[in-house]
Amino acid sequence: MPTTSAAVAQPTLSAYDWNLVSATDASGKPLVAMNKGIERKLRVAFGDKNLSISGGCNRQFGGYQYQDGVLKVQPLASTLMACDRSLMDLDAQVGQLFKGDLRAVITGDNRAPMLQLTTADGSLLKLQGEATPQTRYGSEGEVKFLEVAAKTVKCSHPLIPNYQCLQVRERRYDDAGLQLATQDTWYPLYQPIEGFVHHDGVRTVLRVKQYEWKNPPADAPSTVYVLDMVVEQDASGSK
Fold first, then answer.
1. Which of 165, 155, 163 lies closest to 198 in space, CA to CA?
2. What is the spatial distance between Cα 224 and Cα 211, in angstroms, rounded to a whole number?
3. Same domain, 29 and 119
4. Is residue 104, in this structure, part of any structural domain at all?
5. What is the extent of the structural domain holding 40?
6. What's the rounded Cα separation, in Å, for the pair 194 and 213?
7. Which pairs count as long-range contacts for 220-223, CB under 8 Å and 24+ apart, including other chains?
8. What is the mean pLDDT of the chain?
C-alpha cells in the first residue's frame, strides 16, 4: 500500500534541517569517513533553490532540484578552511556523495521525518529532520544585530526568583556594512537567545533572527530570538 511520504516530501524538504544519523555503502557497511559527520551533526539545509551542508570543516553549498523522488545536486562550492585530517576526509566524502542524481525518500510524520538518500554508487544516507525556526514559529525571521553586555542584570520573572536577564541593545549598520553610532539604551531581554550561551564578563555582538511566534504557549513570549552568528566577542569585562 502506498505511503503518504511522496505527498509530503515536496513541502517538507525546506521545512526541516536534516541531520545525518547513519551512512553506509552499497553492501551495508558504515562509511568510516562519515562517522565524524554523525558525531558533529552534519546538517543539510534546503532553501528554495540552493542547499548547504555544514558540520564538517567547511560549509558546502550549491543548487539543487527535487522532483518525483529524485534530488539533483549541482556541483558544490565550498569555503576553504584547513582542519584536521578527519574533518578534511569528511568534507571529501560529502563532496563525493552529494553530486548528480540521488534517490530521495521521506518517511515518518511531520514531527519526526526521516530523509533517506541513495547515491549513484548505492551508498545510503539517513538524515533526521529537525524543524527549522520558520517552521516552528510560523513566520519568516527578521535579521537583527544585538550587542549583549558583559554582565547580566536582575529582572522580574513571575516564576523564577532572582532571575537574571541579558542586557542588550540593537546595533545598526549602513549599506556598506559600517557600524552606525549606537544610540539605543541597554534594556533587559526577558527570554534567552536560542543557541547562545552567555559567559559572565564577555561582551558579544550577535547576528540573530527575530521571529514572531504565531501560536505561542500561554507562558512563552510571542517574540523569539535565534542565534545566527557571533560577530564580535570582548572579554574585557566592559559593556
1. 165
2. 5
3. yes
4. yes
5. 5-131
6. 13
7. 221/190, 221/191, 223/191
8. 90
Check residue 75 and give its pLDDT.
95
* pLDDT band at 238; cut points 50, 70, 90: low
Chosen domain end from 131, 151, 168: 131
Q: Cα(180)–Cα(9) distance, rounded to whole angstroms? A: 44
d(CA 118, CA 124): 5
Judge residue 174's burial from the number of C-beta atoms within 10 Å of its C-beta, 0-12 exposed, 13-18 middle, 19 or more buried: exposed
Place of cell 526577558: 190
pLDDT tens digits, 161-194: 888 999 999 999 888 878 888 778 999 998 999 9
Is the same domain home to 154 and 74? Answer: no
Return the SS3 of 168: strand
- How does DSSP assign 142-178, residue by residue? EEEEEEE-SS-EE---SSSTT-EEEEEEEE-B-TTSP
- Give the other-Cβ count within 10 Å of 133's Cβ: 20
Residue 111 cell numbers, joined: 514531527
Looking at the domain assignment, is residue 118 inside a domain? yes
Instruction: State pTM to two decimals.
Output: 0.79
Question: Which of 106, 43, 42, 96 has the alpha carbon at shortest distance from 73?
Answer: 96
Average pLDDT on 94-106 reads 96
d(CA 229, CA 207): 5
- In a shared domain, residues 64 and 177: no
Instruction: Please give the Cα distance from 187 to 134 (Å, whole number).
Output: 26
pLDDT tens-digit profile of 120-158?
999 999 999 999 999 999 998 999 999 999 999 999 877
